[in-house]
Amino acid sequence: MTDVELVRALENGKIDNADFKHTHHLHVAWVYLSEADSVENSVSLMRATLRKFAAAAGVPEKYHETITAFWIRILAVLRDAEGDRSLDDWVRANPGLLEKEFPLTYYAPERLFSERARRLWLEPDLRPLPTNAVEFCPASPSRDASHRDLS
Q1: Which tens digit of pLDDT belongs to each residue from 95-130?
Q2: Residue 145, domain member (yes or no)
Q3: Is 146 a member of any domain?
Q4: Of residues 100, 93, 91, the one with CA closest to residue 68
């Protein structure tokens, strides 16, 4: 299934909650970044899709605005970088993207997991989001991600 097919299947309720992993979230966000005319519109698309998905799965409270917007903003920085690197290229170079705990690099747990962060976008409190890929990418060689599933 292509990334676009994944997005359309998710939007149409054809993805089971148990089958939708963190990497799938990243691929959906990547598609929305290419389809929308701004980061904020990408966040809006992702928000609507994930809220509908969570409600259909019977867990509407699982939707988290700050985490959703965080991942879109991080991926937007990478997508806007020079070259035509794919999401999989970025993940291979930055395996930390596969870690669901990655946002804790930018947020204290009590801030990120607060009820306010669940409902509203909150800026990071530990360090600012990168504004370009050079700030994001580590200067040292990345950890080996060969054991991780990228798609």
Answers
A1: 889 988 999 999 999 999 999 999 999 999 999 999
A2: no
A3: no
A4: 100
* Distance linking the first and last C-alpha atoms of the chain: 9
Q: What is the pTM for the complete model shown?
A: 0.86
Report the C-alpha gap between 23 and 40 in whole angstroms.
21
Residue 37's identity, in one-letter code, is: D
d(CA 73, CA 62): 20
Amino acid at 12: N
**Helix or strand (DSSP H, E) at 79:** helix 65-79
Sign of CA dihedral 124, 52, 58, 24: negative
**DSSP structural state of residue 141:** P
Supply the range of the domain harboring residue 96: 3-136
